Here is the input.
Amino acid sequence: AQKITQTQPGMFVQEKEAVTLDCTYDTSDPSYGLFWYKQPSSGEMIFLIYQGSYDQQNATEGRYSLNFQKARKSANLVISASQLGDSAMYFCAMRDLATNQAGTALIFGKGTTLSVSS
Amino acid sequence: DTAVSQTPKYLVTQMGNDKSIKCEQNLGHDTMYWYKQDSKKFLKIMFSYNNKELIINETVPNRFSPKSPDKAHLNLHINSLELGDSAVYFCASSQGESYEQYFGPGTRLTVT
Here is the structure.
């Protein structure tokens, strides 16, 4: 069975600093996707970044990058130059791609609350 | 232009009542999902539909019944509401096997 583990319940960082949010995963599937979502206090789920298991390079999207270490089964999110607006809960998620079936759900970790201070 | 919308945003009701949450997406996606986020913020899949066909039906009480009248809509009907049903329910959609799932704003259900 697939599993996502986020061991940091809360992280604190100052503005303009970089922060790494940890995510490890467990799966026996050879093909899978890894996702990060942001949930601010307003409650919506915002997609940040995606990494496929066969992607050779780490994904980047603006200030977000995904540090993908396949052998360690980790997919850490790196946020560079933190901003006050980055304060939110962050979820790591996984999706099995091996079955190539529409409707396959995301499996989420428990989330990490990031607090950015000025 | 709202991509995935849910109504209502807030729903307060008493135990034993029956309620529905509606979801609509205007992205042309053929796959839709219902997720539940509990009081500890844990998100878990409940159902998924592809082209109106039920794909995933996780172990949820059969008091929960999804209905997909067409590809753009996936409604969630809950019978005999219980205190433990209080949660935030998210609808999401995606296109086929594509990677990203687009989430609606969520419906906060409170059962008293």
User: Anything to note?
Assistant: Chain A has a mean pLDDT of 93.
